[in-house]
Amino acid sequence: MPREARKKSKTGIYHIIWRGANRQEIFHDDEDWTKFLEILKKYKKNCELIIYTWCLMSNHVHLLIKEGNENISAAMKRIGVSYVGYYNWKYRTTGHLFQDRFKSEGVENRKYFLTVVRYIHQNPVKAGMVNQPAEWRWSSCRGYYGKSIYPKTLLDSDYVLKMFSDDIRVARKKFKEFNEARNNDKCLEDQVNQNRLTDIEARLEIKKLLGAMEIAQVKSLPKAKRNEVLQKVKGIDGLSLRQAARIFGVSLNLVFKA
């Protein structure tokens, strides 16, 4: 069955989520995070992209970007091929690193545009990795607050900040208040994962995967074996990391890093 064509954005602006195949980690250390951002910077210039927001998590990437001199699929393919080449060379691996297709949605109006900016910046907070968005090194948040980020020329922040004020100091203050406000924002990830499993359904799926092993035994396994099990569990469709942590009786951070 042919896959559905990607929906074209009228504005050329897209919210993109790109996951590791089977939810595997795509970044393992600072060199990996940095390399991806350097590749993003390279193709920002080559493809004339505008990059409003980004957040790199261990097994997925969020981007809010405007396509430039070629369509978004072609630009993302260039970025992906370049990073996978680096990754396979460094770790002596082969095969797929990313899911076959990145998820995308067109961002067609100002209100939703700002919602996506905040949603992306709050991703590490909602995942329990940090308490405030600016504590996460691998997002564009610090750049909006006037702090140093890497790479320096990657972020295009003027368009967003001018929505709050023409005075840069006032704009940053108002943006920070908006960016850190508690919310119930719903974006692409929630729409994609709307068929979320209940805890009862999740336990049944986990038990199928574990076979003879009991759920309660997993947290006492040696680290390498436990991570192996958790990596497989994270591949269950509709299962959230928070659910997995709750069911196994371990920290969210432990599941996140497995």
Give the helix level as a range of percent: 40-55%
* N-end to C-end Cα span: 34 Å
Strand coverage percent: 5-15%
Helix-strand string: EHEEHEHHHHHHHHHH
Number of strands: 4
Regions with pLDDT < 50 over 5+ consecutive residues? none
Order of strands across the main sheet: 2-3-1-4
Q: Give the count of helical stretches.
A: 12
Average pLDDT number:
89
Shape: globular
Structural class: alpha+beta
**Rg over CA atoms:** 19 Å
Major sheet characteristics: 4 strands, antiparallel
How would you describe this structure in keywords?
258 residues; 10% strand; alpha+beta; single chain; 45% helix; 4-stranded antiparallel β-sheet
Helix-strand layout with pairing:
Layout: E1 13-19, H1 30-47, E2 50-56, E3 60-66, H2 72-91, E4 103-106, H3 110-121, H4 123-126, H5 141-144, H6 158-161, H7 168-179, H8 188-192, H9 199-210, H10 223-233, H11 241-248, H12 252-257
Antiparallel strand pairs: 1-3, 1-4, 2-3
Helix pairs in contact: 1-2
Please summarize what this structure is.
It is built from 12 helices and 4 strands, in the order βαββαβαααααααααα. It has helices spanning 30-47, 72-91, 110-121, 123-126, 141-144, 158-161, 168-179, 188-192, 199-210, 223-233, 241-248, 252-257, and strands at residues 13-19, 50-56, 60-66, 103-106.
